[in-house]
Request: fold
Amino acid sequence: MTLERTELEDNKYFASGTIWMFFVLALLVSWSIWIPMFLLVPANTQLPLLLLGGFGPLLSAIIVIWVKEGKTALKQWLRETFGVRINLIWYLVGGLFLPFGIALLHHSQYLLAGGKSAFTFNQVWGIYIARLFSTALLGGGNEEPGWRGFATPRLMTKFHPITANFIVGFFG
Reply:
């Protein structure tokens, strides 16, 4: 779904309230989970609900596209948003090898500055990898298709990219 449109089509998202419906729905879905969670759930058991509330923007984008643009547009948006465009090895390089490379660089600088190494391969590395993937997929990856995949392109049909991103940043 390419968002290069004529002036008349550009205003479609704003005239129909599509973009503003998304923002309201995204905030309602997320905060209707988070407010009761903060008030009623003990802090040490809040994580599942915190993550669930993070899916509000994605769920809102799905609902708004389905209601306002139809099932075909929704299928196309999902295909474009979640379609893998690069080889899996590059995800591994960026998501796994790069953090280890940065850690190795930092550790090397520490040693060059006279520090003593206490480096061991213990269970901490396993926890690091698990948290890296869970954070990438659930701690931001769950909401970005809504903010960046739905709201930003539609706002950019009307506003300058910087302005569009400030609007998304304000709400998200």
